[in-house]
Design a protein that fits this description.
54% of the residues lie in helices and 12% in strands. With 204 residues, the protein is α/β, with parallel strands linked by helices. Helix 1 links the parallel strand 1 and strand 2. The model has no long low-confidence stretch (mean pLDDT 86).
């Protein structure tokens, strides 16, 4: 059984906060409302099945700055932006930086709830990915010392020939080590391996 979903509402307009809270609670969602980005950041943490509805133009830190701070803290929280002004360049920028949606006030109940449920699906996917990465990261302890060396250079982006030169081994030996590394960690690609190494704290 899935845990109850939580929606964080960050808006400096009390009437908007109240209206959104009422609508979301009627959809059996847990709502936590804040009047500023700073108040939200003081208590926010990664939760399973959660998302945030954020006013793009907040006093103090604005919505985009809040989104950037969540990313800096590595908090996996899908964000839906609300704005009182239709701003296409801003909406494009927000989506490129990972926002789930960019809605213009006043927003219909149907549109808002559709975005919220899409964001919660994204939250589920992020949680599943994090679980898989941490499980894979735990398998790094099974790598040999040489495999760890090869992996460290591979996630730096070095080609096999350069890894072979650095370690004083053959190109073919590097290929064999990389195959074993991918098999042991369950990584599906070099990007996947980089994420696993990050989860283990082996790269910045």
């Amino acid at each position: 059984m899935k845990p109850p979903a939580t929606v964080f509402v960050v808006d400096d307009d009390p009437a908007v906060r109240d209206a959104l809270t009422l609508l979301l609670e009627q959809d059996d969602l847990v709502v936590k409302a804040f009047d500023s980005a700073e108040a939200f950041l003081a208590v926010c943490a990664t939760l399973p099945r959660a998302c945030a509805i954020v006013d793009i133009r907040l006093s103090g830190l604005d919505g985009m700055q809040l989104q950037a701070e969540l990313a800096r803290r590595k908090l996996r929280l899908p964000v839906i932006f609300l704005t009182g002004h239709g701003d296409i360049p801003l909406s494009v920028r927000a989506i490129k930086q990972g926002a789930i949606d960019f809605l213009t006030k006043p927003v219909t109940a149907a549109d808002l709830l559709a975005s919220v449920h899409a964001a919660l699906l994204a939250s589920d996917a992020l949680d599943a990915q994090a679980t898989r990465l941490h499980a894979a990261a735990s398998r790094i302890v099974g790598l040999t010392e040489r495999e760890r060396q090869v992996m460290a250079l591979a996630v730096e982006g070095l080609a096999n020939k350069e890894i072979a030169r650095r370690l004083g081994i053959s190109h073919r030996t590097v290929e064999i080590h990389k195959t074993r590394i991918m098999h042991k960690t369950g990584a599906e690609s070099l990007v996947d391996l980089l994420r696993i190494a990050e989860a283990r704290g082996l790269v910045p």
